[in-house]
Each structure stands twice: as C-alpha cells, then as structure tokens.
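Researcher: Re-running this chain for the archive, since the previous output was lost when a drive failed. Same request as before.
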Amino acid sequence: MDIYHAWCDLKPDSSDIAFCEGVTKYLGHLKSEGLIESWRLTRANSLGPPTLGEFHLLIEVKGRPPSARRGLRTRGRPPRADRGFHLASIRLCRRVFALYRDFLILSATRGEEKF
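Model: Regenerated structure tokens:
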C-alpha cells in the first residue's frame, strides 16, 4: 500500500470550506473510479510542528505501478470532473509532499538479511 501525504496552508483569502469541498469532489471521484483505495483530510489542532501546514491529506493507493497512476492526469491536466480540486490546490501557498509504504520488515523471514 502506498500512502501519499500532503501538508498545506491556505492563503489568507482562501476559503477552508471551498478547499474541503474541492478535495471531497476530486478524491471522491478518484475513489469511485478505482484509482485510489481511500483518502482522509485532517486539520491541525494546536499540536504539531507549524512547518507542516494546517491541513494534512492522506491518499492510499494499493498495488498500482507508476504507469497505472497516469490515469490520475490527462495530458498534464486533471480529469475534467475534478477541476474543482485543481483550482482549489492552486490557491495553496505552501505544500509539502511525501510517499510512505507499508513497512514489510514485520512479515519478512529473519536470518536471511543481506547487507
């Protein structure tokens, strides 16, 4: 399972409601198309480093090679039904992205490590 993380702050004149609605529309569409497994949007509540941003988005993608993920974009533009999120994301003043994967060492056979 690949887990994409994005942290962001909105510009002062941007609406948090419009941003959340755009995220819901975009990622809901990707989920209904089977391009992602699940997603979650959270908002900071005074605990955590301010360098990460106020909003945290997690997107889970299961077993899709990079070539299959190309369906998320078409000719460098987001899918037609999802331009709301694209427009909302442009309003972000700062973004930080990361990719995490399941830690498979927990199910690995012990004693056969190669260093």
